[in-house]
Amino acid sequence: MASLPKRIIKETERLVSDPVPGITAEPHEDNLRYFQVTIEGPQQSPYENGVFNLELFLPDDYPMEAPKVRFLTKIYHPNIDKLGRICLDVLKTNWSPALQIRTVLLSVQALLASPNPNDPLANDVAEDWIKDEEGAIKTAREWTEAYASKKDQKSTN
Amino acid sequence: MSDTEVRAQLREIFRREGLGDSTTVLQLLSQLIPESLQEEWLDQMAEADKKGCPESFVDSLPRVPKSEISPSSSCSICYVNYLNDGYPLVVRLPHCGHDFDLECLSVWFSKSTSCPLCRDDVLSHRAEVDTSQVELEEDWGMYG
Questions:
Q1: Which of A147, B78, B82, B85 has the lowest tally of Cβ within 10 angstroms?
Q2: How far apart are CA B93 and CA B117, in angstroms?
Q3: Which UniProt keywords apply (chain A) (predicted)?
């Protein structure tokens, strides 16, 4: 494997020494470009009290290209599809090499706090969200409880 | 074929078939455009397809003199301290004033036109930047 750019080493060190509240990101032993990530659901959102697992991969062209981020935990959200793919501008057209792993994960956390059904990735979820917001939020809460509850994660880890 | 001959032929085509055979008309019309201008247009079209900034833009960016670089500042693309390099090549975007390693920025600008830090579209101020810089470079290039 080619040597790891200094930037990735610095980012990784800072993620450990100065972690973002509610977010953890640890590189995989065998591949320092692959991170196991957890994000706590923001308070007062349907994802509150949930802990979501994600994977983050830094492509060879990083930071000229955005990190690839995907939810591993099932989640009911209009901008996240069944495969865990995320519809977020900074991961696509609005990526900038001055952004970092840290800022990307903060954006993902912010997306949990403010779902945007008008720019959907999961079309059926977005439709439900627009038709019956209250019902959709209830479903999101149930899924959080069922798939992302802190208690479950502790017992399985 | 001289311009007068081309014009005569065009008139003849229009008289015969109006705008029917547009390929011939376009071929003839293109002969009226000076070759240097045609090349310039083709270059511009090729650059527009590329999405990023033209190389001439990146080359024309003002350099930050070593004496003006603060010891603590680093490039926000590679995170390396500018003064780690004995001969730092740091450029400043003329409009927003953000600094980057020339090497890092030129890779980014090969596919984008926005400042990594503030997203300012650097080509939207291009006219004012380019003319002044290009003249300067030509002056140097002649004897450099």
A1: B85
A2: 11
A3: ATP-binding, Nucleotide-binding, Transferase, Ubl conjugation pathway
| Chain A positions in Cβ-Cβ contact with residue B107 (cut-off 8 Å) | 64
Q: Which of A75, A87, A122, A148 is catalytic?
A: A87
Task: Please report which helix (H) or strand (E) contains residue B6, including its range.
Answer: helix B3-17
Question: Which of A22-31, A45-54, B24-33, B61-70 comes out lowest in average pLDDT?
Answer: B24-33
For the stretch A119-133, pLDDT in tens is: 877 788 999 899 999
Q: What's the total number of domains in chain B? A: 2
Q: Under an 8 Å CB criterion, which residues of B touch A?
A: 76-80, 104, 107-108, 111, 114, 116-117, 119
Domain range spanning residue B73?
A: 55-125
Q: Does residue B17 carry a pLDDT above 90?
A: no
- Say which of B78, B108, B111 has its CB closest to residue A6: B78
> Residue B21 corresponds to which tokens in the numbers above?
């055979």
- Domain match, B66 and B120 both: yes
